[in-house]
User: Which sequence fits this backbone?
């Protein structure tokens, strides 16, 4: 079985052993600890036990963790060390991890220093910003020679403000003069959007003058007070900003130096994260004064290791089979070939507990369909090599590693199908050969789909029928396993007969053998009658008749399923034709050295584009054929993934000595 | 209209070329579709730049119709000898009409399916914004639309391949 069997584990122990046990379980990483809150709503339980409350401690760790994350983020921004293309966790043995994280104060002082520098940088930036803003506001007032803190005398007042460009300043000054003779109007400067003006008036007339000015659209402003004229103040500000820029650079330098300590901070982060997880796990324990109680899931086969740990902590424990109604977490286990394809299953949704892991069934089809759709041996080689290189150079983990391995297999399959259909970067070598007068043609091992589209279509549909039949076979297996062999016969066997019969009719007519067609007709009619009679077997009364008709109507859904596989042809052709177009455009510059260079440029740009687009298309459509056509026949997703309590670190991969 | 003008406007080769144009017009749909998806993608990336890779893949999905259109157009040009042959052939008006008819499914379905696929992709992008782990489902929703572009391509190809084009 490729869904791993789970066992329910219950543990009871003494409170003083709890911490030790949690540590060891985290290291083991094979037990999913269940939440037991439901027990607390049961009065009988609630009398006896309490929730393992770790809230205050957890909050404290979360705060520390958030600080560390912020420090790491800051330093990463100023880290000058060369970063690898792909991030991988670095290996570290357990002892040195424990040793290095033991000096927590040294690590956290590193972190605090980074945070202090960050704070300093923020402050400086804020000041620079403020000064720049002020300087910008002063710019239009450069020629205004009055110190900014002396905008009034005993009797008079200076009003500064903006006027819209449309205002005629002479007219405005004249109007003011007329109404308030003791008033003077000065235009200081103007820019693209505004006129900047100063008005001197008597204090007692200020309100009235302002009201009059507002009639012209005058907008009063206040400048920051200073014991200097606008231009002096502005120069001072600019000088200040320059100073601040210098100290900013110093802080940035300090941050760059501090970035050396990134590995230490990463250690701190992981150590805190482990602590937090232990704390959270502790929350799911129930406790009395002196004991604790723990429940969880463990994959069958891991009991021995768990028992060892539990014995060493002096705990009582028992394993039992899951009961009906319990939601069993799902863990997939497959052969080394099929494992990468778990990524495709995961992307859809894990199977529910009673269903089946489809991974190993669709893996060969996935690889094959991907190859047919990308269908260019050149692209396949590039893809497989790139993936092989990534796998060799980096220690990839998890989903990413699965995807890269999956693409590696798909690359190999593409090489195969590319050779079968004769695509090597389209017809690149033929084009290249013709430049030098050579007649190079790499003949396809089977046939060129472009020369025989109908043939390719037929084979695509045949591959599709095989794929669908495989999916139906899995359904039949599930039905028989669950004790419904008659359903398997009706829902799968009869349809095999019907669809197979239609296939035989086509076979017979294309071979010109009337007898074969005749046999096919009998098969198809037999299957159809069977479906018609049995389709309504779960219904009552008249439903038995209509159910059969409805069931037979499913023939259309099978038809659309089969036709869906014509995408194998379409995507394959589009790769090939676009590759040819690229080569043709490259060859337009003629023969000779210039022609060769143009061809090479067209080759690199064009084929990179074509490969990227078709890689995406092949991935999406190979997945779709599984999700919609194949899974539709038997699969039921929605399982909860098994998430064991383990050392879930971000930066370091802790390896324990065996 | 006198006969010579008819000959001039609707020569077989001219009709075939119009066919190639119609097929290539599927690119309009792809452009609109990718544009729709791109607007949604930019919105998501504004919130979270890390999602760029995922939304870019979704955005690229409606691009295939343009490529299918190109494919059909290229095959037509190949059939009438404009590319990869011995030069442009003069073909009969009937053959030209046949070629134009063959281009119609890809041209029309390409335009509309790509626009609809763009909408589905945009919705998928919105989904990725909220639930990045459901990315695969978003791509599948968009890929469902593409089926019909594939079917149109199929019909266009079968019609084209069945035509025996010879010079007049």
Assistant:
């Amino acid at each position: 079985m490729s869904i791993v069997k789970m066992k329910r584990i219950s543990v009871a122990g003494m409170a003083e052993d709890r911490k030790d046990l949690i540590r060891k379980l985290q290291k083991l990483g094979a037990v999913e600890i269940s939440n037991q809150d439901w027990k607390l709503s049961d009065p009988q339980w609630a009398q006896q036990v309490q929730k393992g409350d770790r809230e205050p401690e957890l909050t404290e760790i979360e705060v520390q963790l958030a600080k560390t994350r912020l420090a790491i983020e800051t330093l990463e921004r100023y880290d000058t060390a060369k970063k690898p293309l792909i991030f991988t966790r670095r290996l570290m043995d357990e002892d040195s991890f424990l040793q290095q994280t033991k000096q927590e104060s040294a690590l956290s002082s590193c972190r605090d220093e980074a945070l202090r520098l960050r704070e300093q940088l923020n402050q400086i930036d804020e000041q620079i910003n403020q000064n720049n803003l002020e300087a910008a506001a002063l710019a239009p007032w450069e020629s205004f020679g009055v110190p900014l803190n002396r905008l009034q005398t005993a009797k008079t007042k200076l009003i500064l403000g903006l006027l819209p460009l449309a205002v005629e300043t002479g007219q405005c000054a004249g109007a003011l003069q007329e109404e308030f003779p003791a008033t003077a109007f000065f235009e200081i400067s103007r820019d693209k959007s505004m006129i900047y003006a100063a008005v001197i008036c008597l204090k007692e007339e200020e309100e009235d003058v302002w009201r009059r000015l507002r009639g012209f659209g005058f907008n009063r402003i206040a400048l920051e007070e200073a014991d200097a004229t606008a231009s002096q103040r502005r120069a001072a500000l600019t000088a200040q900003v320059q100073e601040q820029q210098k100290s900013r650079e110093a802080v940035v330098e300090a941050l760059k130096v501090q970035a050396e300590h990134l590995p230490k901070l990463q250690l701190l982060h992981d150590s805190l994260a482990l602590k937090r997880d232990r704390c959270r796990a502790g929350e799911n324990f129930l406790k009395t004064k002196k004991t604790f109680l723990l429940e969880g899931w463990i994959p069958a086969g891991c009991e021995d290791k768990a028992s060892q740990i539990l014995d060493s902590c002096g705990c009582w424990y028992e394993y039992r089979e899951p009961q009906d109604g319990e939601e069993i977490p799902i863990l997939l286990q497959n052969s080394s070939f099929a494992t990468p394809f778990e990524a495709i299953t995961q992307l859809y949704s894990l199977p529910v507990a009673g269903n089946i892991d489809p991974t190993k069934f669709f893996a060969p089809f996935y690889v094959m369909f991907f190859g047919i759709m990308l269908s260019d041996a050149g692209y396949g080689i590039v893809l497989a090599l790139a993936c092989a290189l990534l796998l060799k150079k980096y220690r990839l983990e998890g989903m990413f590693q699965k995807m890269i391995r999956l693409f590696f297999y798909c690359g190999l399959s593409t090489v195969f199908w590319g050779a079968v259909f004769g695509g090597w970067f389209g017809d690149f070598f033929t084009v290249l050969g013709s430049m030098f007068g050579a007649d190079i043609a790499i003949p396809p091992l089977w046939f060129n789909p472009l020369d025989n589209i109908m043939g390719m279509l037929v084979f695509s549909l045949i591959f599709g029928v095989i794929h669908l039949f495989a999916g139906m076979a899995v359904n039949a297996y599930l039905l028989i396993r669950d004790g419904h062999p008659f359903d398997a016969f009706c829902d799968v066997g009869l349809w095999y007969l019907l669809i197979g019969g239609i296939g035989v009719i086509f076979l017979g007519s294309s071979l010109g053998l009337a007898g074969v067609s005749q046999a096919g007709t009998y098969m198809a009619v037999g299957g159809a009658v069977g479906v018609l009679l049995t389709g309504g077997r779960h219904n009552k009364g008249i439903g038995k008749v209509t159910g059969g008709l409805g069931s037979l109507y499913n023939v259309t859904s099978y038809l659309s399923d089969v036709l869906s596989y014509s995408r194998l042809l379409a995507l394959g052709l589009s790769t090939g034709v676009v590759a040819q177009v690229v080569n043709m455009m490259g060859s337009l510059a003629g023969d000779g050295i210039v022609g060769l260079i143009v061809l090479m440029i067209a080759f690199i740009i064009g084929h990179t584009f074509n490969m990227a687009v078709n890689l995406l298309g092949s991935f999406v459509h190979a997945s779709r054929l599984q999700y919609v056509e194949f899974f539709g026949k038997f699969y039921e997703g929605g399982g909860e993934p098994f998430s064991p309590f383990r050392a879930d670190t971000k930066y370091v991969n802790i390896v324990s000595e065996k | 209209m006198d006969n010579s003008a008819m000959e001039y406007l609707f020569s077989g080769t001219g009709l075939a070329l119009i066919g190639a144009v119609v097929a290539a017009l599927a690119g309009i749909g792809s452009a609109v579709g990718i544009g729709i998806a791109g607007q949604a993608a930019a919105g998501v990336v504004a919130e979270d730049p890390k999602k760029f890779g995922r939304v870019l893949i979704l955005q690229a999905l409606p691009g295939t119709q343009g490529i299918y259109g190109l494919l059909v157009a290229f095959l037509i040009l190949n059939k009438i000898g404009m590319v990869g042959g011995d030069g442009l052939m003069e073909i009969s008006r009937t053959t030209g009409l046949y070629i134009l008819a063959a281009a119609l499914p890809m041209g029309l379905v390409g335009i509309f399916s790509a626009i609809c696929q763009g909408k589905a992709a945009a919705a998928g992008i919105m989904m990725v914004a909220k639930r990045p782990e459901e990315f695969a489902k978003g791509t599948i929703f968009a890929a469902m639309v593409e089926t019909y572009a594939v079917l149109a391509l199929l019909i266009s190809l079968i019609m084209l391949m069945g035509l025996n084009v010879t010079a007049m």
